[in-house]
């Protein structure tokens, strides 16, 4: 497959209304990634390495052994490149032009499309697996998340597998505590907002602040099922290891650490401590019309 960058019509960032200072949520996400090093996030720190290794561990166990994979919200191509090297036929879609440029530069023979998870430039029933590794937390409105899930449903073949990542409702509380930020009153206001609404930040924060929706554990399965999927399980990505102070040391023997995390990856009492959670679901083989309505 030839490398390419394919612009397409999208429901991307809507511009602020003329004469106002309103900045849409979509614009905030685009600006955040324009200023951040997403390409290095999963490589530069022990926590990033843990997230990457655990994500690939989940891929190895829950993706089909081969086939076509759509990486929706695939960023600069970290996961898509890995899967392409393993022999999967990969297509990447992302709404950030900077990410498309980066992904195209590293693409191991897979196409990179500029596009939106809510309106995919992909044909019906054409993929064996779909990855949603960012849309379900960057789309803060439930209706938008449903649009993304229904688009994933549309492009999956019957029996196809969905792997969809969300951020835990308690992720920022744990992270901010580990970083020693509890002396800032604004942090406590943000915690209150997180717990009450799931929103990561208030609307009048600076444009480059991380913008996301933080899921409660019990929300994930029903949200996936409303789009027509059969929700199979919810897995902790980093699990209990994310906040550990000796993570760098533990990663010197990563296979042992992966093995330990797997022991509690689906334990309900342990899920909330993980920064990221992975929903594993499937498109039904029968009853598609009723499920998709």
Automatic annotation (TrEMBL):
Glycosyltransferase listed as a keyword: no
Taxonomic source organism: Nonomuraea helvata
Start and end residues of each stretch annotated as Disordered: 1-20
EC number: 2.1.1.222, 2.1.1.64
Ranges in coiled-coil conformation: none
Domain Methyltransferase type intervals: 71-163
Keyword annotations of the record: Methyltransferase, S-adenosyl-L-methionine, Transferase
GO-annotated biological processes: methylation
Top enzyme class: transferase
Protein's name according to its UniProt entry: Class I SAM-dependent methyltransferase
UniProt superkingdom: Bacteria
PANTHER family: METHYLTRANSFERASE, UBIQUINONE BIOSYNTHESIS O-METHYLTRANSFERASE, MITOCHONDRIAL
A GO MF term: 2-polyprenyl-6-hydroxyphenol methylase activity
């Amino acid at each position: 497959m030839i490398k390419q960058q394919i612009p397409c019509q999208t429901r991307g960032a809507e511009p602020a209304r003329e004469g106002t200072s309103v900045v849409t949520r979509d614009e905030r996400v685009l600006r955040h990634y324009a200023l951040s090093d997403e390409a290095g996030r999963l490589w530069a720190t022990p926590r990033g390495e843990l997230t990457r290794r655990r994500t690939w561990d989940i891929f190895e166990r829950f993706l089909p052994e081969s086939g076509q994979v759509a990486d929706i919200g695939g960023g600069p191509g970290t996961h898509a490149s890995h899967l392409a090297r393993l022999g999967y036929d990969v297509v990447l879609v992302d709404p950030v032009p900077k990410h498309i440029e980066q992904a195209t530069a590293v693409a191991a023979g897979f196409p990179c499309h500029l596009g939106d998870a809510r309106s995919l430039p992909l044909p019906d029933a054409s993929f064996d697996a779909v990855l949603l590794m960012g849309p379900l937390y960057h789309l803060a409105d439930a209706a938008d998340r449903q649009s993304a899930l229904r688009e994933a449903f549309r492009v999956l073949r019957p029996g196809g597998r969905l792997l969809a990542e969300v951020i835990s409702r308690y992720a920022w509380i744990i992270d901010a505590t580990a970083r020693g930020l509890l002396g800032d009153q604004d942090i406590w206001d943000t915690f209150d907002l997180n717990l009450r609404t799931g929103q990561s930040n208030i609307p009048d924060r600076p444009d480059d602040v991380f913008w996301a929706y933080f899921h409660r554990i019990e929300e994930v399965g029903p949200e996936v099922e409303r789009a027509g999927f059969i929700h199979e399980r919810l897995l902790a990505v980093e699990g209990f290891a994310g906040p550990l102070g000796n993570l760098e040391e533990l990663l010197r023997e990563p296979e042992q650490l992966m093995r330990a995390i797997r022991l509690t990856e689906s334990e309900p009492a342990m899920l909330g401590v993980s920064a990221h959670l992975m929903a594993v679901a499937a498109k039904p083989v029968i009853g598609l019309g009723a499920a998709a309505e």
